[in-house]
Specification:
Layout: E1 4-7, H1 14-27, E2 31-34, H2 70-75, E3 81-84, H3 92-97, H4 101-106, E4 110-115, H5 127-132, E5 147-149, H6 154-160, H7 167-175, E6 178-180, E7 199-201, H8 208-211, H9 226-235, E8 236-241, H10 250-257, E9 261-265, E10 285-287, H11 290-299, H12 302-317, H13 321-331
Parallel strand pairs: 1-2, 1-3, 3-4, 4-5, 5-6, 7-8, 8-9, 9-10
Helix pairs in contact: 1-13, 6-7, 10-12
Length: about 325
């Protein structure tokens, strides 16, 4: 059994939190989160958590693990893997351990960095770090330990090499050291696919141009309770999603998991290396024009819709937290 020390900033981060959820689901008490990732366990007021605590939060059973002296224990080789789960916000432990990297490798300890930041810039590159980070430059992780990046695009490579390399060369060089990764959703959130559909669109419509065309929808949070949000998705044939701060969003996974076919604005513009992975015309409805989208949805036949619904659920099953954790472990040779 693989033992993992999972270090993080104890702040809402869908990538780090969904990965931790999956690793704990697979390995149980062999995964030690430091500090205790409070929001993933039951809290008194889940509404204070980012995203109102929907989907990921309050879902892990508490496990009795010893969290004392984590860095010292890691340096002694007590863990097989050390994950820096939120390297953008919490790179201090990596700075502490990097001088012992060769010693840890001899002990067969794998260090891994995960960058779930909305920015296409990869830690520690980009204007935010170039202008204000102290010490400068922060200690680089990619190329030294396995590195996973969510918003991985051609711009990521250009920033990494300070714009000094041709785009194609920069992307190929970066691909040697950086692997793509994406959000994931707990498997218990998956619908059966048999839920009756009573409405065309889910109430929460994040594209304001679509929202203006559909009375009764809202661009902001439409529900205070997760049970109502999920019930609305499961009763809806389609949901609207789009790029916001980054291309990946928990909303894509929530809609698909509910058997609500995502309609994704400008999906064709998403770079292939950037999450979400695997969404296409077979399991969602890409669109560019809101009025044309609504006309298509209204005219869609039942056979086409049933095929899209099945494929959307199948995509969600391939993106559960347990599946993602298994992919992660295989990618680092564990």
């Amino acid at each position: 059994m693989t033992s993992i020390l999972f270090l993080h900033a104890n702040a809402e981060d869908y990538l780090a939190d969904s990965l931790l959820h999956g690793l704990r689901s697979l390995l149980g008490a062999d995964v030690v989160d430091v500090p205790r990732r409070d929001s993933l366990y039951a809290v008194e007021d889940q509404s204070r958590v980012y995203g109102r605590g929907f989907t990921l939060y309050g879902t892990l059973p508490d496990v009795d693990v010893w969290r004392g002296w984590p860095i010292d224990r890691a340096l002694r080789g007590e863990f097989d893997v050390v994950v820096f789960g939120d390297i953008w916000r919490y790179w201090g432990p990596w700075a502490q351990m990097r001088s012992r990297l060769f010693e840890l490798k001899r002990r067969n300890v794998t260090l891994v960095a995960v960058d779930g930041h909305d920015s296409e810039a990869m830690y520690p590159h980009g204007p935010a770090y170039w202008k204000g980070a102290r010490p400068w430059p922060p200690p680089r992780a990619h190329g030294r330990i396995p590195f996973f990046k969510r918003e991985l695009t051609p711009l990521t490579a250009r920033l990494r090499y300070y714009g000094l390399l041709p785009a194609g060369v920069a992307e190929r060089r970066l691909a040697r050291h950086v692997k793509p990764i994406a959000f994931s959703i707990p498997e218990e959130k998956l619908a059966t696919g048999e839920e009756p559909k009573t409405k065309l669109l889910a109430t929460h419509v994040v594209d304001p141009e679509v929202q203006r065309l559909v009375p009764g929808t809202a661009t902001s949070y439409a529900f205070d309770a997760e049970v109502d949000y999920v019930a609305d998705l499961r009763a809806s044939r389609f949901g609207i999603t789009t790029k916001r701060q980054g291309w990946d969003a928990m909303r894509h996974y929530e809609q698909a998991a509910a058997g609500c076919v995502p309609c994704f604005r400008d999906l064709h513009r998403k770079p292939a290396t950037c999450a979400p992975h695997g969404l296409d015309e077979t399991n969602c409805v890409p669109y560019t024009d809101p009025r044309a989208l609504l006309a298509r949805l209204e005219a869609m036949g039942e056979d086409e819709y049933a095929a899209l619904r099945r494929a959307a659920l199948a995509w969600a099953r391939r993106n559960t937290t347990r599946v993602r954790a298994g992919e992660f472990l295989r990618a680092i040779g564990r």
